[in-house]
Amino acid sequence: RGAQGGGGWGEEPGARCPGDGECAAPGSPRGAAVPARTRLRAFLWCREFLAGSWKLIGPEEFGVSPVSGGLSNLLYKCSLPDHVLSVGDEPRQVLLRVYGAILQGVDSLVLESVMFAILAERALGPRLYGVFPQGRLEQYIPSRRLRTEDLQDPDISREIAMKMSRFHGMVMPFNKEPKWLFGTMERYLKQIAELTFPQEAQWKKFNQLKAYNLQQEMGSLRELLESTPSPVVFCHNDVQEGNILLLAGRESHPTDKLMLIDFEYSSYNYRGFDIGNHFCEWVYDYTHDTWPYYQASMENYPTRQQQLHFIRHYLWEDSGRRGDTTHEEQARIEEEMLTEISRFALASHFFWGLWSILQAKISAIEFGYLVRSLFWLYPHAWGGCVGRLGFHT
Question: CA 147 to CA 170: how far, in whole Å?
Fold first, then answer.
């Protein structure tokens, strides 16, 4: 779950892992330095894929610095030195994305690259400059990624709703059966069943999570969602603040100041999951300076009025596809969507909970994945989300 944005990784002076084994080893991606091997690989990729003036510089002139925000990938800004003139229309700076321990598989990475190129052609995402097995080169867009508190801003929430609605209206050349959600979770569960953790603290925490009987819980979740109508649309599946750019120079514009990025989880899926997952992201701040590098504030889950604000702008953007509705029909649709979204928010907790357990084992990125696992919230969420209004009434 990555992001593009300004700045670099940094650790609060004096910050320390609490000793349960979940902090990364020295030299982890949160350190500001770029490893020599990564610097050389970045230089060669830019030289080979961008050509032009990139072929005229040596490794010592090549600029590369970490970009903050990646939970699945490692991100770097690569740039030409100021004294080197452009030869043609090659970009002077690009974003290098080096794939991390992504759990989707090689086939999904290929599909994501195709998707990324299509969205770029439709001006719905950054340009694509190069693709290779270890990652890709993307357009670097002067911007900052949103902060968790930005999601509560009514203007920003309105534009996210409208952009999500447009995204859902796209026709993409991918399998249109909604297999992604439960298919991915079933694969995650099989992988989790084979996990071992060498450190006692991690193993104890892992066994606490397994005590939830995850297979049985997923069966109950499937039964609930099968009884919850939700249209199948092309979903982003990870509309969190780190995957939304606030474009430089457009901060005060009423519209078109945001851009969705990072489509590695995008697929045909249920509408309720995409919106419910976004509402869950109002709770989590992934920029916390000390271990485990995130903070959860349940009181920030959107209220009924905040949810309706989002839903109404989503539906307004969708009105061209749906046609006109009466006031009574609109009110009925809104109430149905509140129920749909609150129930599919459960799937968000479950999906990213499984994801976090696996990341705790395989990721090199320093982050408290086992602590971040959402299963400690799941019983509370189940009690609230089976009803109509989510966590808040």
Answer: 27
277, 345 Cβ separation under 8 angstroms: yes
* Residue 66 host element (H or E): strand 63-67
For the purposes of burial, counting CB atoms within 10 Å of the CB of 356, is it exposed (0-12), middle (13-18) or buried (19 or more)?
buried
Residues sharing a CB contact under 8 Å with residue 144, sequence separation 6 or more, in sequence order: 5, 6, 245, 246, 248
Which residues are 66's β-sheet partners? 76
DSSP letter assigned to residue 65: E
Cα dihedral across residues 281, 309, 304, 300: positive or negative: positive
Coil, strand or helix: which one is 136? strand
Quote the CA–CA distance of 135 and 113 in Å, as a whole number.
10
Retrieve residue 333's tokens.
Answer: 């649709």
- List the pLDDT tens digit at each of the 393 positions of the chain: 544 333 322 222 223 233 333 333 333 333 458 999 999 999 999 999 999 999 999 999 999 999 875 556 889 999 999 999 999 999 999 999 998 765 556 677 788 889 999 999 888 899 999 999 899 999 999 999 999 999 999 999 999 999 999 999 999 999 999 999 999 999 999 998 888 887 787 778 777 777 778 899 999 999 999 999 999 999 999 999 999 999 999 999 989 999 999 898 999 999 999 999 999 999 989 887 776 677 888 899 999 999 999 999 999 999 876 667 899 999 999 999 999 999 999 999 999 988 888 887 766 555 555 555 555 555 556 555 544 333 333
Alpha-helical segments (H) within the chain: 36-50, 106-121, 154-168, 180-193, 200-210, 214-226, 271-281, 304-322, 327-362, 369-372, 378-385
Q: Which two tokens stand for residue 290?
A: 């000390």
pTM for the model: 0.81
Spell out the domain ranges in the chain: 144-385
CATH number of the domain at 144-385, please? 3.90.1200.10
Rounded Cα distance, 391 and 319, in Å:
28
Other C-beta atoms closer than 10 Å to the C-beta of 76 total 23
